[in-house]
# Entry
Amino acid sequence: MFLTGFDSKPLNTLYVDKNLKYHGLIQAFSRTNRVYNDKKPFGNIICFRNLKRATDEALALFSNKEARKTVLVPSFEEIKQDYEQAVEKLLRITPDYQAVDALITEDEQLEFIKAFREVMRYNAQLQTFVEYDQDQTVLDKQHFANFASKYADLCRAIRKTTKKEKVSVLDDVDFQLDLLHSDRINVGYILTLLQMAVNAETDEQRKKYEAQVHDLIGSDISLHDKQDLIQKFIEENMPKMINGQSVQVAFAQFWDAEKEQAYQHFCEQENLKPEAMKQVLDNYEFNKRLPRKEEMKELPNYKVKLFERDTVLTNLLVKTRQLIEKFYVGL
# Structure
């Protein structure tokens, strides 16, 4: 049943210890090919039989002759070579991360975005191999993080500029920020460090954990939209906590209050129906799917003019997703 009729998007790995061929092989392998989220960009097949020839034959039979190149992951050496070429191209454009600030024109910025996006893509693929050590490459983890920070700054700057007098070549760029999240430091990880700081027996230990937290929230791409709120919690709530008190509980109360305040402010600022907005947020919490534009049409607490409809709904969609990503994602 699992090999032929089972369909579960979270399923990511199939262990094979039987001889498969043709449609049976394709059908079995396809149990893992449903893209789920940034944590599952592809499926894994672990074989205890030598099925390479059978796989090549099945792919050749049921698809075009070039399918093997797109269905099967290339070897480690092949991807590493592509990665090194992508890094070389990036460094020709910007020899170091500080050079990104010197990119004045949008065409220059677009060239950097495309180059670093390619580096991110190959880096994400290499991280699936146990032999990969990024610190042994030209672009080690620290330099990669520095470039990633500049890349994220460009992304935020472009997203904030939603209304422009002229069309920008950067408007439709797909930044693919999920490629930076493969080694995610989430809020839970931060809270664990803060709990260690609260429980620290010496000031030296406490300062060590706090310094680590400050470094992480300042450099990790997945925390940029939460950075100000985490900093606010650290500055306003942490000094009031006593040794042994639960950081998770205190942060949950703080986060719920901030989330409710942001929700109310958003509804007032955009003149939205609170109950309709609450339904959109509840839907996300239930199915973990970001809302679509058509779901925005019930939100305005006013009649939207026909010729303004697309612009209004698009702006609402962008802002609603930003609210969700800030308060609901990565916790």
Notes: Residues 197 and 210 are 6 Å apart (CA to CA). Residues 162-167 have pLDDT under 50 and may be disordered. Residues 13-71 form one domain.
